[in-house]
């Protein structure tokens, strides 16, 4: 299979003396931990220049330029202009920051913090670079200033708010960056934020040399420990470390333009312990809520096919994984439109002892003009069918079926007949606003199949 995805420490202060003594060892430990990308964040004029220098001499290290609220007092326009020049002329300067408000320590007068913050927000817009925001005990004021400045591209670093504040930041378009404090036993609030936030909006950071995670708490932090945070996020989200690395590295690519995410198209792709197959981008339906109309990425995998793969190509993409629970025909498309290929691949995989599932829109009998279920008998262990509606009108509205009235009766008939041929049959519904999920459940039960709710805005 593919190489493990690099993990990115999106916020570190590597210019401090703390790292001078063991610089090479520190980088080696990071590499061994899989943390091969870093963003060194400037906090004042001097450290911003140091960050730029470090980035210039290390391939996968990037930098930012900014003034921390602690150091805002007395920063003049000439300094701001010189930092703007530095940011503009440094290709590896991926953001403006860290900037923001710190009303916890109040090391600079609040009026000064606000003045400098406002100037750098403005600068980020002028330079079209995202912002790295430091916010401590100033949630309302920080977000108000970001909104006022019209900034929608950035990250709340070392996120310290609750889930309600997290939602507001996400609505503003911001990412949330998760530090090692997510491992502290007392920090349930941050774990709740991680649980409630789509992982497509999270980044990972150390903020080193500060805030080392358990079991290094109280000692000097370093980039290698980003992996500990990634492991904790994986545990909270029910994902694997590789999933978290891939998705957060994609996120860092989108926000900062760091090119460490592998964006090549996937025919076979892993999420958790399942191997998914992406064999077509065609669907019968055109579901109003489908994420593919925004972008063709699922859990950090690019699924946009430039051609429909044949049998050999699919088998080559699968390889010989020995540590998966099941193979799932899924992707952003309706696999059963390619019924012959599904049967061929499923037969080959069955011989090797894999468990096979199909995720389907349940329109296959309508699309093929015959009952195809007997053809899946013995090849498929489980089928999961998107029901998504308790009645025909709702189905037509949500799923835009091309089969009119028969679209809904077709999916119901498909579900009713499926248990004769397939051992495990599940109808699913997405938690769309206004959808009567309970009515969907009752319908599924009346059709003699299991029922499962899928979270809206949670793909894969
Ligand atoms: S059937 Fe699935 S992939 Fe196709 S449009 Fe509907 S939700 Fe999207
Ligand atoms: Zn900070
Ligand atoms: Zn910092």
Q: Can you tell me about this structure?
A:
This protein is α/β, with parallel strands linked by helices. It folds into two domains: 7-256, TIM Barrel; 268-454, Aldolase class I (TIM Barrel, Alpha-Beta Barrel). Helix content is 37%, strand content 18%. It contains 16 helices and 17 strands. The chain has helices at residues 23-32, 45-56, 77-88, 110-127, 139-149, 163-171, 188-196, 226-237, 241-256, 311-318, 339-351, 364-368, 373-376, 392-399, 405-417, 437-446; strands at residues 7-12, 35-41, 61-65, 93-102, 131-136, 154-156, 175-178, 202-204, 268-271, 274-277, 297-298, 301-302, 326-329, 356-360, 382-386, 424-430, 450-454. Strands 1-2-3-4-5-6-7-8 form an eight-stranded parallel sheet. Strand 1, helix 1 (23-32) and strand 2 (35-41) form a beta-alpha-beta unit. Helix 8 crosses helix 9 (241-256) and helix 14 (392-399) packs across helix 15. The longest helix has 18 residues, at 110-127. The chain is elongated. The chain starts with 6 loop residues before the first strand and ends in a 6-residue tail after the last strand.
């Amino acid at each position: 299979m593919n190489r493990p995805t690099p993990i990115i420490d999106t916020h570190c202060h590597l210019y401090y003396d703390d790292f001078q003594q063991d610089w090479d060892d520190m980088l080696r430990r990071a590499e061994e931990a899989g943390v091969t990308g870093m963003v060194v964040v400037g906090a004042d004029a001097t450290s911003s220049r140091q960050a730029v220098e470090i980035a210039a001499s290390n391939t996968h290290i990037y930098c930012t330029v900014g003034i921390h609220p602690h150091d805002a007092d007395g920063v003049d326009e000439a300094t701001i202009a010189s930092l703007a020049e530095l940011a503009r002329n440094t290709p590896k300067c991926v953001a403006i920051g860290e900037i923001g408000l710190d009303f916890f320590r109040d090391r600079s007068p609040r009026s000064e913090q606000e003045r400098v913050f406002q100037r750098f927000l403005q600068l980020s817009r002028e330079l079209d670079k995202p912002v790295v925001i430091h916010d401590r005990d100033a949630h309302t004021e920080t977000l108000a200033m970001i909104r006022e400045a019209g900034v929608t591209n950035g990250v709340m670093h070392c996120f310290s708010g609750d889930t309600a504040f997290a939602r507001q930041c996400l609505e503003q378009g911001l990412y949330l960056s998760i530090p090692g404090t997510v491992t502290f036993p007392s920090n349930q609030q941050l774990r709740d934020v991680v649980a409630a936030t789509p992982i497509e909006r999270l980044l990972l950071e150390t903020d080193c040399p500060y805030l080392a995670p358990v079991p290094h708490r109280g000692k000097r932090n370093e980039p290698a420990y980003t992996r500990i945070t990634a492991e904790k996020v994986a545990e909270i989200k029910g994902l694997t470390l590789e999933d978290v690395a891939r998705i957060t590295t994609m996120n860092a690519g989108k926000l900062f333009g760091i090119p460490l995410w592998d964006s090549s198209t996937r025919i076979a792709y892993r999420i958790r312990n399942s191997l998914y197959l992406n064999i077509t981008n065609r669907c019968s339906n055109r579901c109003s809520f489908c994420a593919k109309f925004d972008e063709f990425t699922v859990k950090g995998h690019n699924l946009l096919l430039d051609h429909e793969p044949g049998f050999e190509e699919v088998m080559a993409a699968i390889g010989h994984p020995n540590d998966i629970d099941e193979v799932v025909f899924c992707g952003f498309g309706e696999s059963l439109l390619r019924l012959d290929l599904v049967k061929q691949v499923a037969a080959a995989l069955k011989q090797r002892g894999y468990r096979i599932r199909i995720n389907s829109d349940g329109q296959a009998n309508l699309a093929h003009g015959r009952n195809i279920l007997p053809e899946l008998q013995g090849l498929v262990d489980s089928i999961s069918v998107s029901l998504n509606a308790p009645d025909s009108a709702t189905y037509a509205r949500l799923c835009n079926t091309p089969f009119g009235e028969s679209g809904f009766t077709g999916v119901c008939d498909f579900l009713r007949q499926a248990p004769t041929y397939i051992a495990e049959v599940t109808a699913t519904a997405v938690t769309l606003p206004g959808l009567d999920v309970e009515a969907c459940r009752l319908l599924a039960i009346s059709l003699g199949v299991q029922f499962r709710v899928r979270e809206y805005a949670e793909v894969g």
